[in-house]
Amino acid sequence: ILFATLFFAFQWREFCKTMPNLRHKNKFASAVVAHPEQLQFFVPIILVTVMLALKTTVGIITFSWGVEGALIVFFALAVKERSFLHAGFGLLLLCIGKVLAMDMWRLDLRHQVIAFIGVGLAACAVSFLYIRFSHNLRQSP
Prior knowledge:
With 141 residues, the protein is mainly alpha-helical. The protein contains 6 helices and no strands.
């Protein structure tokens, strides 16, 4: 439900750009008022990430975080928001680190090969999309 409110948060951000007198003395309050989409994006993402860690089995956590990270990257490229893109890349980097540091020692050889191929394909796909659409991010305000 919180993620669905991003539509209104982006509209509020555009409205706040036209109102320069909405500055507050408190820097945090000023940032929340000027950029409500940041709060409306990161709170649900953190909640979903923690929920996936608590509710899924040990072998599925990395996969579910990888899917979540890829979806975040796709969404960030669609809305042209650099901070969202950094969050998606960070989650994918967490998945790569978890595969290398923890999951490889628990899996047998066949599952290790599948995990490496899956992580490699996901990293290549996301890097290709970033290279292809990064010019859109640089042009965004």
